[in-house]
Design brief:
Shape: globular
Oligomer: single chain
Order of helices and strands: HEEHEHEHEHEHHEHEEHEH
Helix content: 40-55%
Length: about 280
């Protein structure tokens, strides 16, 4: 970190030498130097959670991921695909985002049955038709507007997507007897101080109400998972900091005494899967 600060001040790029065990036979004058990734600045080793529990939760089931083309959604798809679901549904309103993750799954998991669904969670009828046709057993709801300043300026879109979109997905899960719906939320839903945080909190409360309403009965199990700053995710502060550094600074911060806690996309998704598995009835 100290080296990075010095190199940035001097306008020098910093690279990482390979480990001694990574040196390959061949031309000794050729060294594979890689750039410093944001994960290198995490300040701790990445945490690995219990994959066995996650695998048992997902394996052999039909799984639908909304927002599958986004940073969190696409990593969810990658990890779920590796656990051997019976079928996976990829839902996104972004044609290009959906194309990218669909192509990746087809290349890396060619034997996995999948459906790529171009749809908007704000359209209740379309969402209901999709769940009725696909009949998922687990739904991971990652589709959302997450950029705080943009949602602040476009609050109606934020409410329509984050609140009404979640209502549409949750109601459809109940109607079609989905076993578990996992709502991907944010730490900004805790005592929300902005529109984005407020919309996610309302979405959480709606899912909680549905979950409480089915206690003692068969029905959809609703799980909400919150996490904070995810390195490299859409709307994360890290890409902003990187761009500001490239332009020579300064870095803009909310408050000089504010402390941020980061996790990688992989860690965030493993947390989602593990929390969902732990909350499964029985």
């Amino acid at each position: 970190r100290n080296l990075l600060d010095q190199c940035t001040a001097l306008g020098i790029k910093l690279g990482r030498m390979p480990r001694m065990t990574d040196f390959k036979s061949g031309n000794p004058d050729t060294i594979d130097i890689r750039p410093v990734d944001v994960e290198d600045l995490l300040g701790r080793p990445q945490t690995s959670l219990d994959k066995g529990v996650m695998r048992r939760f997902v394996a052999g089931k039909r799984v639908l991921v909304t927002g599958a083309g986004g940073s969190i959604g696409s990593e969810l798809v990658r990890q779920i695909a590796a656990f051997g679901p019976a079928e996976i549904g990829l839902l996104d309103s972004s044609e290009y985002g959906l194309y990218q993750i669909d192509r990746e799954v087809s290349e890396n998991y060619s034997g996995l049955t999948r459906r790529s669904i171009l749809a908007d969670v704000r359209q209740a009828g379309r969402v209901d038709q999709i769940l009725g046709d696909f009949r998922p057993e687990i739904v991971f709801h990652a589709a959302a507007l997450k950029h705080v300043p943009l949602v602040e300026e476009n609050c109606c879109e934020g409410v329509t997507t984050n609140v009404l979109g979640t209502v549409n997905v949750a109601d459809a899960c109940v109607r079609h007897r989905v076993s578990t719906m996992v709502q991907i939320s944010t730490d900004k839903a805790i005592n929300p101080t902005n529109v984005m945080g407020a919309t996610k909190r309302i979405a959480e409360q709606y899912c909680q109400a549905l979950d409480l309403g089915r206690k003692g009965q068969d029905g959809t199990n609703f799980v909400t998972v919150r996490f904070g700053n995810v390195l490299g995710s859409t709307g994360s502060v890290v890409p902003l900091f990187q761009k500001q550094l490239e332009n020579g600074g300064p870095l803009t911060v909310t408050h000089p005494e504010m402390t941020r806690y980061f996790m990688t996309v992989r860690e965030a998704v493993e947390l989602v899967l593990l929390a969902s598995a732990k909350a499964e009835p029985g």
